[in-house]
Amino acid sequence: MTLLPPSHIFRLTMRLCCWIFCVCAAATTASQQAETGKASTNDGVYSAAQADRGARLYHDRCAACHHPTQFTGPAFILSWKGQTADALFDVIRNTMPTGNPASLKRQEYADILAYIFQANGLPAGATDLKGTDAALKRVVIEPPRRQSPPKGR
Amino acid sequence: MSLPDVLRWCAAPTLVVAIAVPLTARNGTANGEWRYWGGDERSTRYSPLDQINAGNVGKLEVAWRWKAANYGPEVDHIYRATPLYVKGKLYTVAGQRRTAVSIDPATGETLWMWREKDNPRWEASTRKNYGKAVAYAEVNGRDVIYLVTASYYLVALDAESGQPIPSFGMNGIVDLHLGLGDYPVDPDRGTLDSGDITASSPAIVVNGVVVVGNSHDRGYYPENKENIPGHVRGYDAKTGRMLWRFHVVPKPGEFGIDTWEGDSAKYTGNVSSWAPLSADSALGLVYLPTDTPTNDYYGGHRLGQNLYGTSLIAVDVKTGTRKWHFQMVHHDIWNYDTPDAPKLLDVTVGGRKIPVIAQATKQGFLYVLDRATGEPVWPIEERPTPRSDVPGERTSPTQPFPTKPAPFELQGVTENDLIDFTPQIKDQALTIARQFRFGPLFNPPSMAKAADGTRGAFVAPGANGGANIPGGAAADPETGVVYVATERGHSTIAMVTGKERHKDQAGTSAYVSLGPGGTRGPQGLPLLKPPFGSIVAIDLNTGDHMWRVPNGDTPDNIKNHVALKGVTLPVTGKPTHANVLVTKTLLLYGEGRGGSPLLHALDKRTGKEIARVALPATTNTAFMTYMHNGRQYILAAVADAETPAELVALALPRQ
After folding, report:
1. Strand runs labelled E in B81-179
2. Which of B5, B150, B297, B555 is disulfide-compatible with B1, CB 3.0–4.6 A?
C-alpha cells in the first residue's frame, strides 16, 4: 500500500473536517432556528421605513439628552450581544423618557429600537419589528456580520 | 369687658402658642403628622408612630388607593411626590400639570384640586413631572398650602378650600421669574430667553418666610455656557413680598467672586438648589444644597473653584445672608449636584453634644458638619485629584475627602470592580470596559476620541449616584443613625466639541458631553459587580457604619440569565434607589423605580428583615406615614411601565 505523505494526509483531513463542520454548523443553526424560531439582528428584523420613523422619534424624544453615538459601536453592541431584543426594549421603555417613562406607545419604542439597529449597521428587511413581547423575544441581538471583501482582492 | 381685661385674658393663650410654635415646626411628625416633604423641617423622614411595629407590619393591607395618572396630557407612569398630612387632611401634587390636591386620609376621596392655567412657560419647563410636594404653614390662624408650579410661580392656597389667597402676591400668585436679577421678563415667556429656570421641589416655610429654590434643564450638553443662576429667594409668608435673594453665583464685590476667573461669574448659571431644603427654625437657618454650575461636564468656561457650586450653604432665613458654607466638590465637572435634602440630627460625639447636618451625595460621601458653624465633625482633608486633558479644562488640584464616615458606595473604578460571576463574563466585561479610561474618584471626563484610544472616562459613582433624590436618606433623631439608600452606578462620559454635538445649533459652549448614562455590561448584565443597590446604616455618634443590606432580592433577569445557569449568586440587591422611612422601631423601604413591588420592614437596629408586603407597583419616591382617627397609615406613590401612577395607603386590618 502506498502511504500518502503526512502533509497530504493533513490537508485532506483538514478539508474533510472543515466540510463536516460547515455542514453540521449549518444544520445546527437551521435546526436551532426551526426549534426556537429565533432570528438574529443580522436577518433584517426591521424595515427601512420603520427606522426612518424611529429616527424622527429619536430626534424628538431622545436626542435632547442622548447623542445617537451613545448607542452605537462596539461597546454598545457587545453589551447586548446574545440577549433577546425584549431585554433592551424593556430597559428603554421602563426608564425613558426620563420625564415620563413608558409614555410612548409600545410600537414607538420598537421604532426607536429599529433606528438603533440601523445606526449600528444591522441590515433592514421587509417587515417592521413588532413591539409585542413575543416578537421581541424572537430577535437575538448580534453584532453586524463583517462585510465580505469585494471580489478581485 | 374693658380692653385691658381682654388683653389680660388673651395674653395667657398667646404665651402658650408662642412656645408651642417652634416645637411644632421642628417636630413636623409629632402627633402623627407629616408637615413637610421630609416629615419635619429637618428632613429626617422619621416618624415616632409605632401602631405599625415589628409584631404586625406583615399584616398590612391596602386601605385605599388614589389614582394620580390623569393630571397632564400624558398618562403618568411615574410618580415622584410625597404627600403632607396636616390637621386631618392630606395634601400633595400630581401629574405634569403639578395639580395641587387635598385628599381624605381615611378614604382617599379627592377633597379639592387646583392647577395653574396653561401657558408657554409650562410648555418649556423641563421639570414638569418632577413635582415632589407642596409646603404648609399656619399664617395668622389660617392653614396655607404653598405650591411652586412647573411654570415657576408661587401660589398660596387656602388649605380648606383649595383657592388662591387674594391677599398673597397678586390674587394668590407670585411670579418667581421676577426678582432673579437683571433679566428681561416677558409677560408670556418670563425669563426663558435668558435661560431655563423652573422648579421641582417644594418651598419650605421657616419663621414666617417662604424659601424657594429652583431647578434647570439637565446640564449635560447645554449649547451655551450662559444660563440664569439659581438664586434662592425668601418671601413673606403672609403677603408674598420678596424679602431677600441669595446669590448662588456671587456678584462683583461679594464673597466668593474670586473663585470665578475672568468674567465667568457674569454669565455662568445653574448652581440651583433643586433638592428640597431643610431648616433649623430655632437657629433661624435654612440649608441650601446646590447644583453643578453650567455645564455639568465641562468647566473650561468657568475656571476656578466656582462657589457656591455643589455646596451646602447655611443662610439666615430672615435676612438671606450667608452664615456658613461648605463646598463638597470644587469646580464640579461630574454632575455631582447635591441630590437630597440634608438631614439634621443632634448627636454626641466623643462626649460632646453636637447639632449636626448630614448630607448624602452622589459621589458616595456622607458629609457631617456642625450645623451651627459649618465645621466638619470629623476631619475632611483636601487630597490631590487627577487632571483633565480636555482642551481648556482645568480641574481643581484637590477635592475634600471626609475621613469619617467611610464612603457608602464604590468610588473610582479598577478592573477588579467589574462583574465577574464567571470568567467568561469577566473577560467580556474587560473588553467592554477597556474602551474607557479608568480612574479613581473624581476621574475627569475625557474625549470621545482620545489620543490613548479611549472613548470616554469611566466614572464611579456616576451621575445617578451613589445617593440620589428618589432614595436619599432617612435620619433617626432617637438614635443618631442615618440610613442612606445607595445604588452602585457609573457613567461613561465622552466629550466632543459643541459643533459635533449640536451641529447647526452649536452655541457658545466649546465642549459638551455626548450624553448621560453608563455602558451596559456583558449580555445586558450590569458592568460593575454587586451589591447593585444597598441601604447603609451609619451611626453619627461614632461615624461608623453599622450595617449594610441589599435593597431587595437579586433581580429576576439576573437570577434567570442564560449565562448564569448553575452559578451561585450572592443576594445582589436591585440596581435602584430604595425609598427609606424610619419609625420608632422599623426601617421601612420600597425598592424604588425598577425594583419589585414590595414594601420591606427591617429592624432598624440590625437591618434584619421582619416582613415584606406586596404593593400594586413599586415605590417611586420617598413615602410617608401618618395617624388619622386612631389608625396609622403608610402612604406611598407607586407606578411602573404597566401601572399608571397612584397613591397606595396601607394600614393594619380593622379589628
Report:
1. 84-86, 89-94, 99-103, 110-114, 135-139, 142-148, 153-158, 173-175
2. B5
Cβ-based contacts of B523 with chain A (< 8 Å): 79-83
Cα–Cα nearest to B232, from B262, B191, B201, B267: B201
Confidence of residue B1 (pLDDT cuts 50, 70, 90): very low
Instruction: Inspect the interface and report whether the beta carbons of A74 and B218 lie closer than 8 Å.
Output: no
- B200, closest residue in chain A (CA to CA): A99
Per-residue model confidence (pLDDT) at position A12 = 60
Q: Which three cell numbers stand for residue B330?
A: 470644587
Q: Would the CB atoms of B78 and A93 count as touching at under 8 Å?
A: no
Q: How many C-beta atoms lie closer than 10 Å to residue B233's C-beta?
A: 23
Distance CA B363, CA B338 (A): 9
Instruction: Please give the helix or strand (H or E) that residue B211 lies within, else none.
Output: strand B209-212
Test A94 with B130 for CB contact under 8 angstroms. no
Whole-number Å distance between alpha carbons of A106 and A90: 10
> Is the pLDDT reported for residue B608 higher than 90?
yes
Cell of B433: 470596559
**CB-neighbour burial class of residue B106 (10 A; exposed 0-12, middle 13-18, buried 19+):** middle
The three cell numbers of residue A144 are: 453586524
d(CA A120, CA A42): 11
| In contact, B342 and B357? CB cutoff 8 Å | yes
CA distance B470 to chain A (A): 13
Whether B536 contacts B471, CB under 8 Å:
no
* C-alpha cell belonging to residue B650: 396601607
pLDDT of amino acid A3:
53
Q: Which three cell numbers stand for residue B117?
A: 392655567
Higher pLDDT, B404 or A3: B404
Residue A33 has pLDDT above 60, yes or no: no
Nearest one of B181, B384, B333, B175 to B265, comparing CA atoms: B181
Cis peptide bond N-terminal to A97, omega within 30: yes
Which residues in chain A have Cβ-Cβ distances shorter than 8 Å to B435?
A: 74-75
Q: Do B221 and A87 touch (CB under 8 A)?
A: no
Query: Whats the size of chain B, residue-wise?
Result: 655
